[in-house]
């Protein structure tokens, strides 16, 4: 007699699987961008998807728009390179159903000691 086991799919196991697939930058929250190998870091808070906000930062830096981007201003002043790939989410926040730009707050040149 053969015994055949079948994996039991439950709502709980399904939710865990879906949760693991969520990209950490595809939610709103607090994020950190490193200035290359330097100790300085840029910390921002956004009410929109972090990945979207990072793309906006990248575009402003490409155009060296120092009026609208503290990161572009930092690059112009110091010639540091930005390590975009090391961007990380520090904390996730609740949902912002309106996607309001007015909820974005930024702090730059945060230095860890």
UniProtKB/TrEMBL annotation:
Basic and acidic residues: compositionally biased ranges: 97-113
Region (Disordered): 87-113
Name of the molecule in the record: GIY-YIG domain-containing protein
